Amino acid sequence: MPYSKERAERLTELFELIEKNGDYDAYELTYRAVPYLAETNEIVEAQLATEEPYDKVTLLDSAAIMRYLAEAYDRLGRFAVSVSYYKRAIELAAKLYATYGEEIKDSSGMIYNALKARNYYVDDDCEDIRKQALVFLSEDIVDDVFDTVMKRRRNLKHDPVEMTKEYLAVIDEVDEKIEKNREYRGFGSCHHVWSLKTDYLAEKGITWNSPVVLNPKVRFD
């Protein structure tokens, strides 16, 4: 059955709270959105746990929400987290199409973003994503999306330490400390933020290399 009125209303509230804790112009989110993202996931998984077989509306809504969560974690810069939500969204999208013959909006765009997230730190051929994508997209479309992403993957290097449980366990706290202690914003402020992040992570025993360190020939503004 579809989401109850209570769950639907709470999800609407959560979406509003998530977006309030971000920068609309830069399309970014902050650490403050994390508890609301977590609660959103809990509601969706609770709904799915109570249904079998799944109602079409439940699958459609759940796949869309999982995709939203994946893209939200992308906006947070938490690509190691977003990959799990993309995988869940794609699983649900495949089940939706296999069961009801219905496709979620812009499925190819979801696959594109999933591939980018999976290749953010290390090269990944993503054969599991290809297999599931072929359930609801034609082979020509899937091949085109894969070719586009794989030719341009990892133009910039990012520190794989961001994939570790140790990093993920402290990054909310570190982001909060950065927000409270940064001295300026705007042009060139990324270097200031990265310097603070390096120092605060070091205090946690984590060595983190910023994009400017890993990409010395690239100019960052």
Structural features, described:
The chain is an all-alpha fold and 221 residues long. 67% of the residues lie in helices and 2% in strands. A two-stranded antiparallel sheet has the order 1-2. A hairpin with a 4-residue loop joins strand 1 and strand 2. The longest helix is centred in the middle third of the chain and has 22 residues, at 79-100. It is globular. The protein starts with a helix and ends in a 7-residue tail after the last helix.
Q: Can you tag this structure with a few keywords?
A:
221 residues, Serine Threonine Protein Phosphatase 5, Tetratricopeptide repeat, two-stranded antiparallel ribbon, 2 strands, 2 domains, mainly alpha
Summed up:
With 221 residues, the chain is an all-alpha fold. The protein has helices spanning 5-20, 34-49, 56-76, 79-100, 107-118, 127-136, 139-152, 165-181, 189-203, 211-214, and strands spanning 22-23, 28-29. It has ten helices and two strands; from the N terminus they run H-E-E-H-H-H-H-H-H-H-H-H.
Largest sheet: 2 strands, antiparallel
Which CATH class of the largest domain applies here? Mainly Alpha
**Subunit arrangement of the protein:** single chain
Shape: globular
Question: What is the chain-wise order of helices and strands?
Answer: HEEHHHHHHHHH
Number of helices: 10
Provide the number of structural domains.
2
Number of strand elements = 2
**CATH topology category name of the largest domain:** Serine Threonine Protein Phosphatase 5, Tetratricopeptide repeat
Mean pLDDT: 93
Determine the fraction of residues in helical runs and give it as a percent range: 55-70%
CATH architecture of the largest domain: Alpha Horseshoe
Structure class: mainly alpha
